[in-house]
Structures are given as structure tokens and as C-alpha cells.
Write a structure and sequence with these properties.
By secondary structure, the protein is mainly alpha-helical. It contains six helices and three strands.
Length: 159
Amino acid sequence: MAELPTDTASGQPGLFYCSFRQQGAIVRKGAVMKNAVLTEADLVEKGIALFNEGRYFEAQEAWEVPWLTATVAGEKQFLQGLVMVAGAFHHYLRRECEGAALLVKKGLPLVRSSISTHRDLCLSELAADLEDVLDEFESCSLRVPIDALPKIKRMAVGS
């Protein structure tokens, strides 16, 4: 079996986009997805799944390429908002309240501005939930359980 590439920062194999920019492959610890080419839409969906699992850093990584390569302004803002919110939650997990609050403040308007263009997602609900956790992040109460952090939900079919 081929040896997995190593993360240059940590020296460890893991989930990272080592060759995405060159070949479109993602390497995951323990498995190589050969000839896998994920579209930007695939990466957005993967990021949403990771976010909802509480894997905020990995969600940011999944959204990074579509965000940086987006050519439509509204899509770029939407993805930037998601990246910031995921970053905020990652900071919160590390008990870094100031960073968490700052990133929610920056990401919230970008999420709000995407409500009308991403009708398949419950972004109004996400924005309201972000406002609620912002107060907690600013007070650094650490009272919000990790599993109670907001999720990205889909609209019900027929809504």
C-alpha cells in the first residue's frame, strides 16, 4: 500500500488537502481516495456535514477552496461567512472566547446576506442562533455545551 503523505506542519498523516490544488485528491488518515475529484459543491456539502458533526476546523478546510475560487460575489460571501462561523466555534472549543466572538460578529452579516440566495438552507435560523451564542461568547461564560452549538439545517421539502 502506498504511504500516506505527511502534514508538513505536524509531521503526521491526517485529513488535509495536500494535493487538492494540484490534482483534486483528498487524503484521509488510513485511506486514500484514488482518482477522487470533488467538485466545489461536493466540498461545500462535505463542509456542512463536518460542521454539523462538530468538526469545525475540518469544515473550514473543506470550504476554503470553494471560497477562494468562487467568482460570484454572493457565493464568495456565503462561504466566507461559513468559514468564519466554523472558525468561531473552533475557537470556542479551545476556550478562546474573544476570537470566537470576533469571528461570529464578522461572519453573521455574511450569513444573513445569503438567506435569499441559499433557500435550501435554514440560514435565518442559523443567524438567530448565532446571535444567541454571540452573547455567551462575549461574556465568556462557557455555558453553551459543545453539542448545543448551532447547526446548518436544510429546509423541509415542499417549504
